[in-house]
Design a protein that fits this description.
The complex is a heterodimer of chains A (about 575) and B (about 160).
Chain A: E1 2-4, H1 5-15, E2 20-23, H2 30-37, E3 43-46, H3 50-64, E4 68-72, H4 76-90, E5 95-101, H5 117-121, E6 127-130, H6 137-149, E7 155-161, E8 170-172, H7 192-202, E9 208-212, H8 214-218, H9 222-232, E10 236-238, E11 253-256, H10 263-271, E12 274-278, H11 284-287, E13 298-303, E14 317-320, H12 323-336, H13 343-357, H14 373-383, E15 389-392, H15 396-404, E16 413-414, H16 425-435, E17 441-446, H17 456-462, E18 468-473, H18 478-487, H19 503-509, E19 513-517, H20 523-532, E20 538-543, H21 567-571
Chain B: E1 2-10, H1 15-25, E2 32-37, E3 43-51, H2 54-66, E4 70-75, E5 81-92, H3 97-107, E6 111-115, E7 119-126, H4 128-138, E8 143-148, E9 152-155
Antiparallel strand pairs in B: 1-3, 1-4, 2-3, 5-7, 5-8, 5-9, 6-7
Classes of the chains: A alpha/beta (about 575), B alpha+beta (about 160).
């Protein structure tokens, strides 16, 4: 079969099992778009801005575990995509971005719409390629998907000069069956000796903690985590990225940890004697001040990326490997072992945790007149029976979503944890809805974040993605305002949102349903009404309490044991 | 502490910038960096001289290993190894100093490559220590220009860095 470069690209995507790509055409990718037009296996979603293409592909990937695929043109197409690529990179999301490039003979001549895409994206991709010949096109695509999806996943960019996709030049096409890269061999199974050491430590603990992260979801190892945790009966805390891997509603779960985690999770981290970190990377938002992090604990760390180990916190028993097989191996050894932690010790440990839990750190005061954002999230859980896919933007609403929407299943919580990208929520929700047409999908956002990719309301209409937008509108960049309240004596420098659009009219002008909700007593009914409209996008503008803060909070430079609680709780 | 790290990487466009970019993005030191193809034309060998705490060196090695273009890597400082660098130095050579410089060159096993009425160009090979010792001995007043290659290195014994 003789094909042109553009056709090879489309055939290769088909071979990789790609069903959906997100993109935006332009000069350098015209040949590719022409090849796209003439085939039926790959469906293209036309976004309104390339940033949204990457976020949508990212949402698709997070919900399905499959790589998200993006197609953008050279120059501004590529640079617009960078924010989304960096977002995926920070959260280790598998993604393949195909960017057009000017003709190979013009590279370096400052040609129209030329940027050094490989150079610009280098620090925020797992790897990138500049296709150097038509002959190497298929092989490069094969490698790109391999690198993006194996080991610690991540985005891979393929920069494709226009001349290599021209319809006139055809070569025989045979998609490679295997891929060989001598310089890339991601680890799989953990070292048996290390696993033995870890199990020994786990079974001799007095005050153990399991701390699991996004790696469990990326490694598709939620079942193994559940079996492991239940066999041990130990408390578990999950990171922002790991929510849902272990059910929030289970009694062994003591909530999220970190800057806005629960009091009990953070205090338990501070007091534990054995910490079992699984697919988590000791991010600064989790550890707080590193000097006072888990001062009494021996630390076991399971991670597929050797560079994650002892990067921020020195660990005692590192295990480099895929979390699933490592958890399987640990569980097998635990079951085979006669040794167990002293039940009296574990009972004492649990009773300490119960005492910390009794403070009810997540309780907040309701109001008859002002809508509390936390209450909206709790109502959303009720209206969706906790089954929705929740895409979030970045800020206070993101933390409330994480805190109050109890995720019982993995891949349901879609948020930009590492990079913290405002504007992520709407396109990501769109990507989820396209990946899971039968699922309930909501986007929790704020009036600041939503405006950063608001143009995607148009894409949502075109492709009929009936997501429900929960806009927690407090007329502030709430998280910025909160830090200014705590650390800058309430000098609210540029954190207010003035001249806001009428979101109801805005939604309607895009062809959607808009709702304005101002009274606490209307929240439940409005949500029920919105979710009853199964085939419509509903933009729900909740006018919320402007002064509400996210609690508990570990402020910068503080340790896990120095949490700032909701003032209402401190008085109680 | 000073470390000398040798890397075998795919000899392809942009490979050098992946390494250089990693060092600048993560704020690691580079004292010197040399790169050239090996006997296998598909592989380049790079030698990086860097310094940092044990923890930073460990991270540097892990982050380098993580680069998809890097095939193999060794921290030469962990084993007995040989380090060499070439230096070309232009020195002032006038009057009685000309004779003295010639003698110094012999002592340091250097070669004089170029001669004018007032200057020599001297070629010197050695480790960082030796090259600096030569410059110190000649004295800053007499040094006109220095061009150093950066260090390269290889482990002693029969073990090798090979893919």
């Amino acid at each position: 079969m003789e094909l042109s470069g553009g056709e090879i690209l489309m055939e290769s995507l088909k071979e990789e099992g790609v069903e959906l790509i997100f993109g935006y055409p332009g000069g350098a990718v015209l040949h590719i778009y022409d090849a796209l037009y003439q085939q039926n296996s790959v469906k293209h979603i036309l976004v309104r801005h390339e940033q949204a293409a990457t976020h949508a592909a990212d949402g698709y990937a997070r919900a399905t575990g499959k790589p998200g695929v993006v197609l953008v043109t050279s120059g501004p197409g590529a640079t617009n995509a960078v924010t989304g690529i960096a977002t995926a990179f920070m959260d280790s999301i598998p993604m393949v971005v195909i960017s057009g490039q000017v003709q190979s003979r013009f590279i370096g001549s400052d040609a129209f719409q030329e940027v050094d895409c490989v150079g610009i994206t280098r620090p925020c991709v797992k790897h990138n390629f500049l296709v150097d010949s038509l002959e190497n096109m298929a092989d490069t695509i094969k490698k790109a998907f391999h690198v993006a999806t194996t080991g610690r996943p991540g985005p891979v960019v393929i920069d494709v000069p226009k001349d290599f996709t021209a319809p006139g030049e055809k070569i025989p096409f045979d998609y490679p069956k295997t891929v060989e890269m001598r310089s890339y061999s991601p680890p799989t199974h953990g070292h048996p000796g290390q696993i033995r050491k870890a199990v020994d430590l786990i079974l001799s603990a007095k005050q153990p903690m399991i701390y699991s992260g996004g790696g469990v979801i990326l490694g598709n190892a939620s079942e193994q985590l559940r079996a492991f945790t239940r066999e041990l009966g130990y408390p578990i805390t999950q990171t922002l990225m790991g929510l849902g891997a272990y059910p929030a509603s289970d009694k062994q779960n003591i909530g999220m940890l970190g800057m806005h985690g629960t009091y009990e999770a953070n205090i338990a981290m501070h007091e534990c004697d054995v910490l079992i970190a699984i697919g988590a990377r000791f991010d600064d938002r989790v550890t707080g001040e590193v000097e006072s992090f888990c001062p009494n604990a021996k630390i076991i760390h399971v991670d597929i990326d050797p560079a994650s180990i002892s990067k921020n916190v020195t660990v005692d028993v590192p295990i480099v490997g895929d979390v699933g097989p490592v958890l399987d191996a640990m569980l097998e050894q635990i079951k085979a072992s006669e040794k167990r932690a002293d039940p009296a010790d574990i009972a004492t440990w649990w009773s300490k945790i119960k005492t910390w839990q009794s403070g009810d750190c997540m309780k907040y005061d309701l109001s008859d007149t002002l809508i509390k954002p936390q209450a909206v999230v709790e109502s959303l859980w009720r209206a969706t029976k906790g089954e929705a896919y929740i895409a979030s933007d970045v800020g206070q609403h993101q933390m409330w979503a994480a805190q109050y929407y109890g995720f019982d299943k993995p891949n349901r919580w879609i948020n930009s944890g590492g990079l913290g990208t405002m504007g992520f929520g709407l396109p990501a929700a769109m990507g989820v809805a396209l990946a899971k047409p039968d699922a309930t999908v909501a986007c929790i956002t704020g009036e600041a974040s939503i405006q950063m990719c608001i143009q995607e309301l148009s894409t949502c209409l075109q492709y009929n993605t009936p997501i429900k937008i929960i806009n927690l509108n407090n007329r502030y960049m709430g998280m910025v305002r909160q830090w200014q309240e705590f650390s800058y004596e309430k000098r609210y420098s540029h954190s207010y949102m003035d001249a806001l659009p009428d979101f109801v009219k805005l939604a309607e002008s895009y062809g959607h349903v808009g709702m304005n909700i101002e009274n606490p007593s209307d929240v439940d009914a409005a949500l029920d009404e919105a979710f009853a409209m199964k085939d419509r996008l509903v933009f729900m503008n909740f006018v919320t309490d402007q002064s509400e803060n996210v609690y508990p909070m570990i402020e910068a430079g503080k340790g896990h044991h120095e949490m700032r609680l909701n003032p209402a709780r401190e008085l109680a | 502490m000073r470390h000398v790290i040798s890397i075998l990487m795919e000899n392809e466009a942009g490979a050098l910038s992946r390494v250089a970019g990693l060092f600048s993005a993560r704020g690691y030191n580079i004292e010197s960096l040399t790169v050239a193809p090996t006997d296998d034309p598909t592989l380049s060998r790079m030698t990086i001289v860097t310094s940092g705490t044990e923890r930073i060196i460990e991270q540097i090695i892990k982050q380098l290993n993580k680069l998809v273009s890097v095939a193999k890597l060794t921290d030469l400082t962990e084993v007995p190894f040989i380090e060499r660098e070439i230096m070309l130095v232009k020195v002032r050579a006038v009057d009685a100093g000309r004779e003295e410089l010639k003698r110094l060159c012999d002592i340091f096993r250097g070669k004089i490559l170029d001669v004018t009425d007032v200057s020599y160009v001297v070629e010197l090979t050695g480790d960082d220590h030796k090259l600096r010792a030569f410059l110190d001995t000649v004295g800053a007043d007499n040094v006109i220009e220095v061009a150093r290659s950066g260090a390269t290195g290889i482990a002693r014994g029969d073990k090798s860095l090979k893919v």
